[in-house]
Amino acid sequence: MIRVILPFHLRTLAHIGSEVTLEVEGPATQRSVLDALEAHYPMLRGAIRDHVTHERRPFLRFFACEEDLSHNPPDAPLPDAVASGKEPFLIIGAIAGG
């Protein structure tokens, strides 16, 4: 089981609490986790990744084990602690402004 923590606006959109658990088939990667998340919560499709390119939306960041994984390849394995469910995969809303 993979634990995923979502930012408030995505929790509201999906009508869920702050953390969800997902079964992920195959290796735990950003792509496999996001595929499972969007399959289980279809209202999130397009909110985290672009519909066509599947690239991360600009104001979302991905973290795990206190490490920014936002620019890692989508098929790179997630840390073992995330794959085992010990640590969560975090999706964070970035803050911008001037």
Q: What does this protein look like?
A:
- This protein is an alpha+beta fold.
- The chain has a single domain (2-93), classed as Ubiquitin-like (UB roll) (Roll).
- The chain contains three helices and five strands.
- The chain has helices spanning 8-14, 30-40, 80-83; strands at residues 2-5, 19-22, 60-64, 67-68, 89-93.
- Strands 2-1-5-3-4 form a five-stranded mixed β-sheet, covered by helices on one side.
- The longest helix has 11 residues, at 30-40.
Query: What is the H level of CATH, i.e. the homologous superfamily?
Result: Beta-grasp domain
CATH topology name: Ubiquitin-like (UB roll)
- Overall morphology: globular
Return the domain count. Answer: 1
Strand content: 15-25%
CATH architecture: Roll
**Stretches with pLDDT under 50, minimum 5 residues:** none
The description of the largest β-sheet is:
5 strands, mixed
Jot down its keywords:
alpha+beta, Ubiquitin-like (UB roll), five-stranded mixed sheet, 3 helices
What's a concise summary of this model?
With 98 residues, this protein is α+β, with helices and mostly antiparallel strands. It has a single domain, classed as Ubiquitin-like (UB roll).
List the helices and strands and how they pair.
Blueprint: E1 2-5, H1 8-14, E2 19-22, H2 30-40, E3 60-64, E4 67-68, H3 80-83, E5 89-93
Parallel strand pairs: 1-5
Antiparallel strand pairs: 1-2, 3-4, 3-5
